[in-house]
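We were asked to recover a plausible sequence for a given structure. The inputs and outputs are reproduced exactly as logged, with field labels preserved.

PROBLEM: sequence recovery
POSITIONS: 185
GIVEN STRUCTURE:
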């Protein structure tokens, strides 16, 4: 076995000090760097989540505004019997809500109910005056000039329309509640 002479004491002490100094730097770097990286990563993930939540909240706010517009339109239409021409704005909103169903799958049931109620309301549209009087230009077009059968038919249509408007109002209120719940959740 070959024995090496021991190193001079000054070199061993210097090497040992350098090694412990390097180890200390590594330990300090790990102790300070690791929490910094972890905190940075958590901050990034939290910010990303917040932005997604804000974007979803904006979409839900837009949907709530659309439902409010349909609600206001329903109240305006409910004041008097409506013909097919008067339902055009409501049918426009129906198409917009139908597009919203695809974007908000969690709200599918209440939105689909509103769409069905709009369809039921559209089916109760009052016939135009020409359809009631037969389209004869000389025929009186006032309710007083209608026969009992035509007047009864119009009254039934008006009642059905009032019921359909009330059902639409209920569906709209339920959909608005569902949007509020989704906004909070």
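RECOVERED SEQUENCE:
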């Amino acid at each position: 076995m070959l024995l090496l002479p021991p190193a001079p004491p000054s070199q061993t002490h210097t090497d040992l000090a350098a090694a412990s100094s390097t180890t200390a730097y590594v330990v300090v770097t790990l102790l300070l760097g690791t929490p910094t990286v972890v905190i940075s990563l958590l901050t990034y993930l939290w910010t990303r989540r917040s932005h997604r939540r804000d974007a979803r909240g904006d979409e839900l706010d837009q949907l709530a505004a659309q439902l409010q517009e349909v609600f206001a339109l329903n109240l305006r239409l409910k004041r008097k019997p409506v013909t097919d021409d008067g339902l055009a704005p409501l049918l426009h909103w129906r198409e917009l809500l139908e597009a919203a169903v695809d974007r908000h799958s969690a709200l599918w049931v209440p939105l689909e109910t509103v769409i069905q109620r709009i369809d039921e309301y559209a089916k109760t549209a009052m016939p135009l005056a020409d359809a009631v009087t037969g389209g004869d230009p000389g025929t009186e077009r006032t309710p007083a000039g209608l026969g009992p059968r035509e007047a009864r038919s119009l009254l039934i249509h008006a009642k059905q329309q009032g019921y359909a408007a009330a059902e639409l109002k209920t569906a709209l209120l339920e959909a608005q509640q569902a949007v509020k719940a989704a906004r909070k959740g």
